[in-house]
Structure formats: structure tokens, C-alpha cells
Amino acid sequence: MERWARDERPARRAAAVTHGLRTAPHARTGADRTLLRHAALLLLAGPADERLHGGALALLVMDPSSRDRHLPRAISRFASGDPYLPPSAMATALPTHPEPVLAAFRARLLGPDAGEALRRLADATPPALAHRVALLVGETVLERPETAGHVAAYVDRRLDHDPTARAVLHPLVTGLLDTGPEPVRAALAGVLADDGTTGHGLLRHELREHLLTHEHDPAVLDALLHAAARCQGEARRNLVLRTGRLLVRTPDGATRFDRGLVELARHLPDFAGQLTDWLADAPGDWAALVGPSARRTIEGLAGARVPA
């Protein structure tokens, strides 16, 4: 890599950055880190390679021995959205320099690669900083509701892997479910429908119960319906039924429920048949929920009649 960093050809110097960023996370010896550091310094010294300086700074920040000296410049470029200085590199400095790195991530989360920044935060957050990162995530999504899908993915990932999830995520998620904008609540509904196969299934259940107890917006409940239909086993039926009972409290919700069932019956291979089984097995549970037109369409899709 150092030889490429010295090469006069721009393509070789760009390749040095790409290769270095791929190699740095696996550098285990002092000799390996020294080679990467020297190559990064060569790239940083080349004024003609201004666009590669972000990648060079990323390599220097990832090396604990050069981090202190180069972090201020890296933070400035990272916060301004330098595409060559990835969130994964800056996240390595989070445990040693939390204040400036969190401030830089706050700025980066307002940019176009907020999703990648959140993914890296989810993976790199040390337990001691989990509360502060959760507060940052909550502030970001309230300021930029369009990041709702990324924040929901962050919550989903932390529920699977974070040992501090209950203390950190419970207040974050319940607060967003109570006062967050509709896109945020709908995105969270999508990741809370299923208990998952790993991590904090009980906490997911508690957060879902909070949603079911407090949510009234048909758009959010419609998102929950579509997520519920992708659950497995008895959980699928129970959550679809409970969501339907909440939706039919309003005319708009009842329309959304009928339309949602038809859409799901058309697009999920086994849903139409399973739905007709539910209607036949417990007609009293569903009679007030599924309209006649939706029932006929579902029967047609399933190829089975349901006794009235």
C-alpha cells in the first residue's frame, strides 16, 4: 500500500486508500499499523489528492497512536459529510474521544448518509455511552422524521445485540411512540411486531404492548398490520386480530384494515388461505372486522368459501 501511496498515478493512490480502509480493521500488529500510518501520511501530504485526504485521515484516526494528532481535522471533514471518511472509521474513536466524536456524528446524522452513520453507531457504541447515543438518535429523528426507517433499523439492531437495551431503549422507544411524528411511530411499529429470534424478545413484547395501548392513528396501525402479517404461528393471527380491532374504531381505520387484508392476501403466498381459516374457525372474532367486499376478494384469492 505504501508503494501505491507514493505512485504518481491518481488511480494507484485511490487504490491505496481503498485497500487501506479494508485492511485497517484487521491490522493486529504494530508493524501492520505502522505501514498503514506511513501510507496515510504520504497521501495526506499530497495536495493534488485533496479528495483522498478524508480516507487518509480515516486511517490515521483508526490507529490509536496517531488518533490524537489527526482527530480534529478528521472530525471537521467528517461532520461536513466527506464521503471518503466513513462512519465506520470515526466510530473507532468513540470510546477514546466521546465528546467530539458524538458532536461530529450529530452533524453527520443530518446528512444524506444518516442510515450508514446509525448502523455504525449501533455496532460501535460502548455500554458506557449507550444512553448518550440513544438521546442523540432520538433528537435526530425528531429533527429529521425522514430518517425514521433508519432509526427503526437502529432500534431493531440494538434489541438484538445490546446488553443495555432495557435501560436505554425502553425510554427512547416509548418516548418516540408517545410523542414522535407519525412516520417514526409507523417505522417503529414495523420492527416491534415480531419478538424476533434473538435478543430481547420480552422487551419487544413490552414495547409492542405500549404501542397497542396508546396508538390511535390509522396510518401507524396499518403499518403494524402489514408487519404483523409477516409474523409466524399464532402470533400472526393474534396481532392481526388485535390490530384490526383497533383499526375498525374509525371509518378510515376500517377501510385501511379491509384494504390491508386484501393487499396482504394478494402478495403474501400463504396469507389468503390462512385468513380464510381464521374466518371459518372463529367467525365471531372477525365478523365485525372484515367487510363483505374484502371477504369476497379474500375468498376468491384463497379459492375457498367461508360459511357466513
The residue-averaged pLDDT reads 88
General shape: elongated
Q: Kindly provide the radius of gyration, computed on alpha-carbon positions and rounded to a whole number of angstroms.
A: 25 Å
How many helices?
19
* Share in helix: over 70%
Let me know the number of strands.
0
Largest sheet: none
Regarding quaternary structure, what we see is single chain
Distance between the termini: 74 Å
Name the helix and strand elements from N-terminus to C-terminus, one letter apiece: HHHHHHHHHHHHHHHHHHH
**Unreliable segments of 5+ consecutive residues:** none
Helix and strand content put the structural class at mainly alpha
Helices, strands, pairings?
Layout: H1 2-6, H2 10-23, H3 30-44, H4 53-62, H5 64-79, H6 87-91, H7 98-108, H8 114-124, H9 130-143, H10 148-161, H11 165-179, H12 182-192, H13 201-214, H14 218-228, H15 233-247, H16 251-267, H17 271-281, H18 283-286, H19 292-302
Helix pairs in contact: 2-3, 2-4, 3-4, 4-5, 5-7, 8-10, 9-11, 10-12, 11-13, 12-14, 14-15, 14-16, 16-17, 16-19, 17-19
What does this structure look like?
- The chain has 308 residues and is an all-alpha fold.
- The protein is built from 19 helices and no strands.
- Helix 2 runs parallel beside helix 4, helix 4 packs across helix 5 and helix 16 crosses helix 17.
- The chain is elongated, with a radius of gyration of 25 Å.
- It starts with a helix and ends in a 6-residue tail after the last helix.
- The mean pLDDT is 88.
